[in-house]
Amino acid sequence: MIEILSYPFMQRALIAALLTGLIAPAIGTYIVQRRLSLLGDGLGHVALAGVGLALLTGSAPIPIAVAACVAGAVVVEILRQRGKATGDVGLAVLFYGGLAAGVFLSGISGIGAGGLAQYLFGSLTTVTPGDVQLIAVLAIVILVTTLGLAPQLYAVSTDEEFARTQGLSVRLYNIAVVSLAAVTVALAMRTVGLLLVSALMVIPVAAARNLVRGFTATLLCAVGIGVATAVGGAAASFYVNAAPGAFIVLLAIAVFMLSWPVSYLLRRRNAAAVLPELVDDDELVAPHTITENHPHRHAPGCGHPAVQHGDHTDFIHEGHRHAVHADHYDEH
Amino acid sequence: MLIGARTVLEADDLTVERGGLPVLRGVDLSVRAGEAVALMGGNGSGKSTLVRTLLGLLPYQRGAVTLFGAPLRDFRDWSRIGYVPQRSLAQLAGSKVKEVVAAGRLARRRPFRPLSRADRDAVDNAVTLVGLAGHLNSDIARLSGGQQQRVLVARALAGDPDLLILDEPTSGVDLEHQRVLAEVLAGLLAAGTSVLVVLHEVGPLGSLIDRAVVLSAGRVVHDGPLGDLGQHRRFGSHPHHDHGQPAEDDHDQGAETLLGGAP
Q1: Fold of the CATH domain B1-68+162-263
Q2: For residue B172, which of A7, A32, A239, B73 sits 20 to 30 Å off, Cα-Cα?
Q3: Which of A35, A168, A214 sits opposite B106 (nearest CB)?
Q4: What is the pLDDT averaged over residues A198-221?
Q5: Which residues span the domain enclosing A221?
């Protein structure tokens, strides 16, 4: 590990991979929640038009790709909000239009469609110091937004109508989500490539959903998986001389596959701990034995195993269960 | 009818068309402070459309909506309104109960600020009020239908609203849950909260209702105490219906539902 850090190009590659692994699942969690899993894929095609334009004008590809991608994302979102893109047809036209424009523009620039390959599949080792700076700045913007606005973006992504009755500007938040996704896609063309970035936005989230409960936990777990697979894949590809983008995505898929049996085991353990729901009738709760003189206060993490029991939590205590009831504990 | 500061919600001559077809035709509706109003009618009578139009979720072609004295367009005080939509969890699955309920605090929160102590307490209180205190960290998708419905009620209550709007909160859930809901609503009404509730049948909530507004084919055909509904049917204050259809259909559909019969 120390050895590869001595190469400046590997340092930049690892930083770029780390940042991609951080931001792609962070924004991806909202995209998956909105059931737009394939949006990133489509935006990758639009980014290609930006790359083609950059090749034609001889300017840096990332800024132009970011601009093209954001413009495409906003157009798609506004069409969706107006109800104009009811079918997938509108999206398809935009996406294939982007792909065709990219190939066309790179063709007339004299570089040819082959020049697009490094953006389609990523080329981590050719990341420049300028690229790293740009990626770092935009990564900070994306992280601050996805974490700082988490409650608002969560509400908008899960229940749009309810979010509107909370006075949230749903339109604005939705445009923000797709724009951030667009920026992420455009940035990732250097690391995992435009064709594979969508995988890094979706697969860690899918794996995290199997492993943890709740939206916030899913977001954080997905980011963890994203960072681990991106950095791990980039470093490992140095040793086995493989394409880093492909290696990263395959690693993420491996984690996803592993998350299935793990989630099965977790669920079985939890299911075993949940007892049937208590019947509310007072007459039926006959074994209402009150513990006398119980100085210990049970709480989560107090050292006694906790068991979910219908609507309350029991604590296992010297071979029987204690349930909090007003100012005392019931034994049952 | 008392109009003015004490009216928390008012629709005046509201007309809504969807896809060129009228869904609501000149509907007048008002809810006064502390009042419990039931919105009733058969399937397709326009109840949900009316509620969603009142909340600004659907556009309207004619008329006016006033919330707490302000035209809907200028209304900004969203923390005064708690909305309980029809139960649909498609995208909420995978969320913890406390995450869902915390969304009900958003009208009172500013962007980039963490959940405050008061927010947390409000979420805890709302979840306790609907009897789900032990489920704060449960995945909402793993609760029963009635419990899920109660989570949505808790979400609306977390913002401490002055007007609660519920869209068919009793449909598809058992009587036990309906009784819990009736208890919760009774407590809110006693505290001065106004309630507008869409009901398919009266059920355990009936005793709380001050006034029933009945829609049929997008028009108000009754606006008065629940008890008058029987009379209304007997003397046949004539509901408007499409004369291309057999007249019996929408008369009976409304009346049977109102009298608490099977839908």
Answers
A1: Rossmann fold (3.40.50)
A2: A32
A3: A168
A4: 95
A5: 2-267
